[in-house]
Amino acid sequence: MVLKNFEELVAKVKSFPEPKRVVVAAAGDEHTIEALKEAVDDGIVIPVLVGDKAKIDEYLVKYNLNVTQDCIYDVPDVDEAAKKAVELIHEGKGDFIMKGKMETAQVLRPVVNKETGLGTGRVMSHFVFDELPYYHKLLVTTDGGMMTYPTLEQKKDIINNTVETLKALGYECPKIACVAAIEKVNPKMPETVEANELKQMNLRGEIKDCIVEGPISLDIALDKEAADIKGFDSPVAGDADVILVPNIQVGNVLGKSITVIAKGNMAGFVVGAKVPIIFTSRSSSAREKYLSLVLAAAVSAGNRN
Amino acid sequence: MVLKNFEELVAKVKSFPEPKRVVVAAAGDEHTIEALKEAVDDGIVIPVLVGDKAKIDEYLVKYNLNVTQDCIYDVPDVDEAAKKAVELIHEGKGDFIMKGKMETAQVLRPVVNKETGLGTGRVMSHFVFDELPYYHKLLVTTDGGMMTYPTLEQKKDIINNTVETLKALGYECPKIACVAAIEKVNPKMPETVEANELKQMNLRGEIKDCIVEGPISLDIALDKEAADIKGFDSPVAGDADVILVPNIQVGNVLGKSITVIAKGNMAGFVVGAKVPIIFTSRSSSAREKYLSLVLAAAVSAGNRN
How far is B239 from chain A (nearest CA, A)? Predict the structure, then answer.
């Protein structure tokens, strides 16, 4: 099973017997409440709102969003709201977390706390699903947001995070392309050396439930014709499900190329913690915010099953 | 003056009183002769062919391309052909070089030779013009092909190469975006530190005839709305003419994103030597090869004037 587009993902989530519960930290924010509205109307999520209750109520009225009083926690202090959101996950009162009006670092602090947090022992990474204008299925790009210059072991964690997330969505054996500027291992380009190491780990069974290819250039990963011309024979060539970038500089430019240059749609969240964590930013489109909620709901459902 | 699209560039070159002379090294190659055909028919170039004359003649017949005998040099050995091409430039018998059937390193060896080569003292860099589906003008991306991990001084050279090339095309003061994952200078991200240094060099007048901005993210460089949301005020925001990438990993992914994900058109060559050097690869489209000849002809004309 692979997802062809976001429409398939939305249909899948709408078919679930019940909505997932999203715990929103610092929910007293107009953009956040607005983003929740459509997903609630579609029966995809039930919001659990933590934050400044006066503001929350104001925006709930403005956007005509109905949330029962027992799902609103009045915690005006932002850091306390983040802590409370994590507690609510521990208490089983939510399926995933969404960041409201606070800095990313603020919501992450209680998440990464060794004793009371939501860590799994692995690094956390940013998982982004992209719907591209000319590709035959959704494409994951990772990590363009969390790990800046991951080590080899951290890249392995990022792959594991990604594979686990895709399995929760129903994928059986995703194809991972560890991209670099060239396809040959060149000691002068550490990105190619590590891409090959990841492939070898996969061949030795140290990275499971996926096919890892690398080093592989982006065109070969996405375009079978380019692969054929260059004589690159691999099941990942022209059919990658996941692009693993070597660092945040590459990941950021790839992500921005997709959204700004190619006008693709995207949805994303942080994976590697016990539950997904959505970071929507003010510059994200309403569509991106909605799709991120859909994606997190889908993964939460998969993790439960 | 800025170029809106390739159509403008083609029209400009077609209006020149006479074609430019392209010296092709190892021209006994079907794809190369095929690529020359359209540019010759359009009156843009006159080919000077160096290589295995038997093969050259065979493909000239096949593609019905007429080249006078005094413009064909029978030099079957590939390395000798590269040397001969450089000699012909020194003798004033050509305006720029195009690589035929040989490795990039082979054509570069005689070009970079300190005594007999075509060096200018600056590094050579890859200049690519991209025609994007949703941008209001052509965009230069550099360097995705020559310099792997340029130092700060080399990045300065790359900017100077690029500005000089754009001036030859008629640009007055191009806007250069030194892209990074974030807009703030962060010592943990050397890319942001160097982007800022380049901006400071520009402000101090050490990099001239252009506006350098950095660190700046790709979305802010290309999308005014993203810049406004993030409160980034700069003449380069949403209006960049040039994207300077920090290294080849970023440049390669950006280039492949443009051609494979966004299906943009591109044309490119190596700049920083005394004349442009075109590297067409077999996987390049016929359109890319044609446009690269057009671009080199335009720049050659500008350099002469």
Answer: 13
Comparing alpha-carbon positions, the chain A residue that sits nearest to B179 is A253
Orientation angle between helical segments A152-168 and A286-304, nearest 10 degrees: 80
- Count other Cβ atoms within 10 Å, centred on residue B17: 5
Q: How many CB pairs under 8 A join A and B?
A: 123
Q: Which of B222, B245, B282 sits opposite A260 (nearest CB)?
A: B222
pLDDT, tens digit, 9 for 90 and up, residues A58-68: 999 999 999 99
Could you tell me which of A42, A6, A10, A39 has the C-alpha nearest to residue A22? A39
Distance of CA B304 to CAs A15, A43, B264, Å? 67, 67, 30
- pLDDT single digits (tens) A81-138: 999 999 999 999 999 999 988 888 888 999 999 999 999 989 999 999 999 999 999 9
Through-space distance between the first and last CA atoms of chain A, rounded to whole angstroms? 16
Tell me, what's the ipTM? 0.93
With beta carbons under 8 A apart, name residues in chain A contacting B218. 252-253, 256-257, 260
pLDDT level of residue B227 (50, 70, 90 thresholds): very high
**By the 8 A CB rule, do A257 and B218 touch?**
yes
Q: Which residues of B touch A144 (CB under 8 A)?
A: 181
Q: Which residues contact B37 (CB under 8 A, 6 or more apart)?
A: B63, B64, B65
Instruction: Give the CA dihedral A231, A235, A240, A243, nearest 10 degrees.
Output: -80
Tens digits of per-residue pLDDT, A199-246?
A: 999 999 999 999 999 999 999 999 999 999 889 999 999 999 999 999
Q: For chain B, first and last CA: distance in Å? A: 16
Helix (H), strand (E), coil (C) string for B86-104 = HHHHHCCCCCEEEECCCCH
Distance from C-alpha of B277 to C-alpha of B104, rounded to nearest angstrom: 10
Task: Provide the whole-model pTM.
Answer: 0.94
Q: Which residue reads 């190469």 in tokens?
A: B161
Interface test with A, best of B257, B263, B288, B289 (most A CBs within 10 A): B257
* B132 Cα to chain A: minimum distance (Å): 7
Burial annotation A192-202 (CB, 10 A radius, 16+ → b, else e): bbbbbbbbebb
